[in-house]
């Protein structure tokens, strides 16, 4: 609900040139409160449900980083796709949230069945590979990452 209020405020106040300063300040405060309450809610849920061991917890924990990587691209893609449909702020926001979670979960499930892709998404490899495959993988990684690193540095 807080996120939907922020989206509403963005559409009605931040994008409106006629907005008064107190309205903009109120939306800034609402946005900050929504971010803090969201983080506190996640911490409370984690403290409540993740304190005791569960058989699924290790499997889910290893997918946190890939989920994070996927969600960034999926949010942008869905927002770009839904933008031209003129669905309205609330419908578009809900579709982006649901679509992001669904697609991220689906991609994480698929990633579980592709062990050769797991290191690219920060998942530790549990299988022992032959030495020549390790050397080939490290060489390929070096060849792919050095140009990008040089581009960032220079």
TrEMBL record:
Positions of transmembrane segments: 29-50, 62-83, 95-114, 135-153
Keyword Membrane carried by entry: yes
Keywords linked to the UniProt accession: Membrane, Transmembrane, Transmembrane helix
InterPro entries given in the database record: Glucan_succinyl_AcylTrfase (IPR050623)
Protein name: Acyltransferase 3 domain-containing protein
Organism: Pseudoalteromonas phenolica
């Amino acid at each position: 609900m807080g996120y939907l209020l922020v989206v509403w405020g963005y559409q009605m106040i931040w994008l409106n040139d006629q907005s008064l300063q107190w309205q903009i300040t109120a939306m800034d405060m609402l946005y900050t409160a929504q971010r803090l309450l969201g983080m506190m809610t996640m911490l409370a849920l984690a403290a409540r449900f993740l304190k005791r061991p569960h058989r699924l917890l290790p499997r889910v924990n290893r997918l946190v980083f890939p989920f994070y990587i996927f969600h960034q691209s999926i949010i942008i893609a869905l927002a770009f796709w839904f933008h031209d449909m003129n669905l309205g702020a609330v419908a578009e926001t809900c579709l982006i949230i649901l679509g992001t979670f669904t697609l991220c979960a689906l991609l994480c499930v698929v990633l579980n069945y592709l062990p050769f892709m797991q290191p690219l998404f920060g998942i530790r490899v549990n299988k022992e590979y032959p030495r020549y495959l390790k050397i080939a993988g490290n060489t390929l990684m070096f060849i792919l990452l050095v140009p990008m690193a040089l581009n960032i540095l220079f």
